[in-house]
Amino acid sequence: MTTSKQAAPRPTRGAATRQKILVEASRQFAVRGYYGTATRDIAEAVGVRQPSLFFHFPNKQAIVEELLRYSLERPTEVARQVLALPQPAAMRIYRYVWFDTHHLLASPYDLTGVHRDELMDAPDFHEWREKAHKLRRDIQELVRAGHVDGSLRPVDPVLAQELISGMNLNTIRMAHAGRPTPRVDVPTFVAEFTLRAVLADVTTLPEVAVGAMALPLDPAS
Amino acid sequence: MTTSKQAAPRPTRGAATRQKILVEASRQFAVRGYYGTATRDIAEAVGVRQPSLFFHFPNKQAIVEELLRYSLERPTEVARQVLALPQPAAMRIYRYVWFDTHHLLASPYDLTGVHRDELMDAPDFHEWREKAHKLRRDIQELVRAGHVDGSLRPVDPVLAQELISGMNLNTIRMAHAGRPTPRVDVPTFVAEFTLRAVLADVTTLPEVAVGAMALPLDPAS
DNA sequence: GTCTATACGCAGATAGAC
DNA sequence: GTCTATCTGCGTATAGAC
């Protein structure tokens, strides 16, 4: 264990190429979509020939699956933990939204392309569709919990979750789309924007924001 | 001029096929993306052979362009009109969001697939990218107007507009995704959700909602 | 690890009969 | 208007040299 940890299965030098493939592929997927991106495009962005990709990944699908893993595993874990925190649902939802935006923004990848229906609805990606679905349902449950404990307005949970997810993805898309990220703290902006829309009493927002970040979470799975 | 108006250039019978092509194509584009959808898939859904599509449209791009036209022309026109109304910006933004959600939901097409970057960023669709961009900037201007007249909180206009657009599209996507539309009035839900997040004073929401729908707009361009 | 050469299928589009 | 047959280019992936 003398070397640092690598998410990639290649501890040798040249693992840099593998990483670069993931970064460039995520950008292309975000802009042109998975099916709109040719492996030649990825290879060109990386600076290698097209067949060289297949030394690092068995096929195109494996590339996008690694991005899906990164995009879903940690948020799923966090959602599960947040769901169990002994707090009003308003605080827990704040925390989840904040984390999710932060996670997507801090990522080396532009993950806006891998959440689209064109992928999730394909039979090959059934497993990932399930995971994304489970995550959505956890958020819906959080909204329902807020109805019970009175911290959230009685909004339709599915509709609310869909609005939240849509906001989040579009923010990330914009942030990655070149122009310098706005001067505001984006995760906080998104979390507060969301909470204003669903809070039972808007005047509680400051204390919700503070309370939300108070309790610790496990750092990893 | 004895026949009723047709958006399509084919007043003969068999125009039904043309319409069906647009409907089915929009569905496939929403699910698999433009590049992920083969003209054979569209043809099969319509119930004709693949080359028959090319009697009604010169090529695949022309199909998606007609959907883009439907998706952007009226909302652009409405945004322009709303921008000029003598009202607080809060009311005008409410109205625009309500209209846009309503327009997308009432459409015979599932237009969630045609707004994606994979299309807009392609050189062939440059013209449409411009139109979409202009629409976004009108919304941003509306947010700024709200800062000036004091009806909206001083949120980052670009970020806010991006959140609004993201919400809207995801709602439509969900509504089209099979399951029976929630029992709530979706355009009103989305408009109120949005306004809560950006209103300077949330208690004014009821009067904003009423005032927003009071002034008349031109019915068509 | 990365290259060149290439196999092979699929997608968009045309020609021309009916 | 819709069909069958078919062309052509592109995209993923493999073989094998370096």
Name its key features.
elongated, Tetracycline Repressor, domain 2, disordered N terminus, 221 residues, homodimer, 64% helix
Relative strand content of chain A: under 5%
Question: Helical segment tally of chain A?
Answer: 10
CATH class of the domain at 61-213 in chain A: Mainly Alpha
* Structural class determined from secondary elements of chain A: mainly alpha
Going by CATH, the homologous superfamily of the domain at 61-213 in chain A would be Tetracycline Repressor, domain 2
Give me the CATH architecture of the domain at 61-213 in chain A, please.
Answer: Orthogonal Bundle
Radius of gyration of chain A: 19 Å
Overall residue-averaged pLDDT value of chain A = 92
Query: What is the CATH topology descriptor of the domain at 61-213 in chain A?
Result: Tetracycline Repressor, domain 2
Residue share in helix of chain A = 55-70%
Largest interface: A-B, 40 and 42 residues
Give a quick account of the main beta sheet of chain A: strands, pairing sense, barrel closure. Answer: none
Outline of chain A: elongated
Give your account of this protein's structure.
2 copies of one chain form a homodimer. The first copy, chain A, is mainly alpha-helical and 221 residues long. Chain A has a domain at 61-213: Tetracycline Repressor, domain 2. The first copy, chain A, contains 10 helices and no strands. Chain A has helices at 15-32, 39-46, 53-56, 60-83, 89-106, 117-120, 126-149, 157-176, 186-198, 205-212. In chain A, helix 5 packs antiparallel against helix 7 and helix 5 packs across helix 10 (205-212). The radius of gyration of chain A is 19 Å and the shape is elongated. Chain A binds chain B through residues 30-36, 116-118, 121-122, 155-156, 158-160, 162-163, 165-171, 173-174, 182-184, 186, 189-190, 193-194, 196-198, 202, and chain B through 30-36, 112-113, 116-118, 121-122, 155-156, 158-160, 162-163, 165-171, 173-174, 182-184, 186, 189-190, 193-194, 196-198, 202. Chain A binds a DNA duplex (18 and 18 nucleotides) through residues 12, 14, 17, 38-40, 48-52, 54-56, 59-60.
